[in-house]
Amino acid sequence: MIPDFAPSPIAILSALPQEQRGLIELLHMPRKVNHANRDFWLGDLHGQPVVLALSKIGKVAAATTTTALIERFGVRRIVFTGVAGGLGAGVEVGDVVVATDFVQHDLDASPLYPRYELPLYGRTRIACDIFLSDLLFEASCAALASESLGIHRFCNARVHRGLIASGDRFVCGAEESRRLLGLMAQAGHDVQAVEMEGAAVAQVCLDYGVPFAVMRTISDRADDSAPFDFPSFVEKVASPYAQNIIEAFLNLLSKK
Ligand code: SAH
Fold it and tell me: Which residue in 17, 208, 232, 243 has its CB near the most CB atoms, within 10 A?
């Protein structure tokens, strides 16, 4: 079903300035508003009113930005573009994961609640909006196949769909990521990627009834080389990926 398209802006959220840079360059009639100690960029992208924002890093910061986007800027759809560590088998650097749903890997109120369950929500995972996620998947496939990524294009890059785990920790050890993957699998969660913000965005969107979708480019494998893979990837590749995928996404959205 196509959601109700009110003329409210669509929010495009990134975690890091390097991920957002290319998007600001695309903005028509940009206007910067500082609110809650953050810069929000208002303008038009492909004829659509948008607000670009940085979640900053971690779940609390991401929840603050998401709340501000909804309460102050009146957004009714949120799309997140960022990077993540690949955990699932075959989820490699340069691939994209479009989230189906989110879990917090560092949430543990046991024995009061089952491990990973959101206390008082009666659930562990929060699903993304299917309509927006389908578009984001289509846009990611198109962007990865296009020549416009130039030298940043990874041969054999794949677009995956699946569960993403968020937590307030940069996961960077082969042993640690194996353990995390194993514990989550034991609890029935087949995690494809790990990052630090998505589940917080998801929780705020659930509370407000705002549809959201998330794509993460894999910057590292959350292993011992992650501290080296991550910075160079973010510097060189995250921005053109976000730029190309969001352009393709807005293009597809304008045709719906
Ligand atoms: N000092 C760095 C910190 C980045 S933290 C900087 O400011 O540049 C890592 C960011 O990338 C977070 O936004 C997180 O969502 C994502 N990320 C990428 N790889 C990750 C991993 N292996 N574990 C957790 N988060 C990861």
Answer: 243
